[in-house]
């Protein structure tokens, strides 16, 4: 994964609800972004913002408050604006995934600003005119409006993924069952199925154990799971022996 994208800043313009600022900070920290700029927020600092940040108060503490959007992006070489509305302006519009990749390329050359508008009205045409690129998040045409923090989370997630982030399965403490263990389990299964007279009911009557093998091979059993299954099979055999003894004794 590439280094933390410190040169991509999130810029919120005239945010009405302080809780949204806190939720945005949390979304940013989830995706390893830390630079937040607030343009004329209605209320900041605010206890609700801190509460909604939920562990990302360091992002809030570093947030910079400015009076104008121009001030917030003055040192940025590449400006990306988010919008949910179709626009007539001759500005290139990219899907959020493509846009995230482009932002990473530009961030290697200099600071990049990612703009989000007011919760109710979004970015104005004059604010959009400052952008090099518009970003669209695919959503239902019937209801394309997203909550501010949700929109930030989606875009920053795509940036995080574009940096090469992938989920890595942690190393499991219990190893997978060895082939020899699986073979012993299958032999045990065949033995128990014979004892309880559970047979393949298909026309050929020869594929039952093959299907059982496929079933458990897909499951990728670990050693503990094989031991559990063999313990169940052993318990079935014991119960059958006890039941058989009772039957013979009462005859």
Count of domains: 2
Report strand %.
5-15%
**Name of the CATH superfamily of the largest domain:** SPOUT methyltransferase, trefoil knot domain
> What share of the residues lie within helices?
40-55%
CATH level-3 fold name of the largest domain: Alpha/beta knot
Mean pLDDT: 90
Overall CATH architecture of the largest domain: 3-Layer(aba) Sandwich
Uncertain stretches of 5 or more adjacent residues: 247-251
Class of secondary structure makeup:
alpha/beta
Summarize the structure in short.
Helices cover 47% and strands 12% of the residues. It is an alpha/beta fold and 251 residues long. The longest helix has 28 residues, at 223-250.
Structure report:
The chain is an alpha/beta fold and 251 residues long. The protein has 2 domains: 8-162, SPOUT methyltransferase, trefoil knot domain (Alpha/beta knot); 179-244, Helicase, Ruva Protein, domain 3, CATH 1.10.8. The chain is 47% helix and 12% strand. The chain contains 10 helices and 7 strands. It has helices at residues 18-30, 47-53, 57-62, 69-72, 96-107, 125-128, 148-162, 179-195, 208-219, 223-250; strands at 8-13, 36-39, 64-66, 78-82, 93-95, 112-116, 133-136. The protein has a 7-stranded parallel β-sheet. Helix 1 packs parallel to helix 7. The longest helix is centred in the last third of the chain and has 28 residues, at 223-250. Mean pLDDT is 90; it is low at 247-251.
